[in-house]
Design brief:
- The structure holds 2 protein chains of 2 kinds.
- By secondary structure, chain A is an alpha+beta fold.
- Chain A contains 4 helices and 7 strands.
- Chain A folds into 2 domains: about 55 residues; about 70 residues.
- In chain A, strands 2-6-5-4-3 form a 5-stranded antiparallel beta sheet, with helices on one face.
- Chain A is elongated and about 90 Å long.
- By secondary structure, chain B is α+β, with helices and mostly antiparallel strands.
- Chain B has a 5-stranded mixed beta barrel with strand order 2-3-4-6-5.
- The chains are: A alpha+beta, B alpha+beta.
- Chains A and B meet through strand 3, strand 4, helix 3 and helix 4 of A and helix 1 of B.
């Protein structure tokens, strides 16, 4: 049964549909507003959860000896692929995708394993990967257009 | 038609996943135009290089944790590093670059940091490279 288009029906439909849109936009702007105002407090592309470790203090020697001693002390899975000292007692070990920063005299180390966020990504996403990959971003849109037919 | 769409989606997945397996990744304009200079040489004779384009290489020892807007390379001399600063959002260095070998290029810059009466720190001179491009590799550099 087809209903007649009365002013009341049109008014109600317009307000309802506009309300859905505005409610969605309000939510979107609220979340993005908080995110943008706190840009300095978080990284949209990576989550970082440092883990504090303690060990018996080690002697300050040369970098390779200190690295080997730290690997043994913290029971790390083998030698790092690179290492660096910021100061005589501070050494950093670099593994594939994770790092250990230690103060050997204080016996304190921080293990950091940054993880890429699965959905929320900043400019390191497709747009940050060069023009060819940015163009590749158009392919899914074209694919979905083809699937609609 | 659906087969064509599926092919397109597969190609996209391969294209976007490719950088994750690349042996080296280029950022910005890449490298190769500026003369290579050791970081220790830059720090020993900074006035000779200020304002000039330089190319340096070393192990990545730090990356900006918030925006990937800078990375720090280890010098050939112990306890010494140099910061490669790039424009926010133009080049974004990945956080997992730490420990990888990078070559970076840009203009060697002197920054005069004024004294801070609140913290009691005196005026300071900081040298860094205003980066225009970089290449990060998944290989070890001998002796580092």
């Amino acid at each position: 049964m087809k209903h007649p288009w009365t002013w009341r029906r049109v008014n109600r439909a317009v307000h309802r549909d506009a309300g859905y849109l505005v409610a969605g936009l309000t939510l979107l702007y609220a979340i993005s507003g908080v995110a943008v105002n706190h840009r300095a407090d978080w990284n949209p592309s990576w989550s970082i959860a440092p883990e504090m470790l303690r060990f018996d203090p080690l002697p300050v020697t040369d970098r390779d000896t200190m690295a080997a001693a730290l690997v043994t002390s913290l029971r790390l899975p083998g030698p790092p692929r690179a290492s660096f000292r910021r100061a005589p007692e501070k050494i950093e070990l670099y593994y594939e995708g994770w790092t250990v920063e230690a103060d050997v005299t204080a016996g304190v180390a921080t293990m950091t394993r940054p993880r890429e966020r699965p959905v929320l990504r900043g400019r390191t996403g497709l747009a940050g990967r060069g023009k060819w990959l940015a163009m590749a971003g158009l392919l899914p849109a074209i694919a979905f257009l083809l699937m609609r037919r | 038609m659906r087969r064509a769409a599926a092919t397109l989606l597969t190609l996209t997945a391969i294209a976007t996943a490719a950088p994750a397996f690349a042996a080296e990744t280029k950022y910005g304009a890449g490298v190769g135009k500026a003369p290579a200079v050791k970081v220790s040489e830059l720090m020993a004779n900074p006035d000779r290089y200020v304002g000039k384009p330089v190319r340096v290489d070393g192990v990545v020892t730090g990356v900006c944790a918030k925006r990937g807007c800078w990375m720090e390379l280890a010098s050939d001399k112990e306890f010494q590093t140099i910061k490669i600063k790039v424009d926010d959002g133009v080049i974004v260095f990945p956080l997992d670059a730490k420990g990888k070998v990078a070559t970076a290029e840009g203009v060697f810059t002197r920054i005069d940091v004024p004294a801070d009466p609140k913290s009691g720190k005196g005026p300071e001179v900081v040298y860094r490279i205003q980066g225009t491009g970089a290449v990060i590799r998944c290989v070890l550099l001998a002796g580092r």
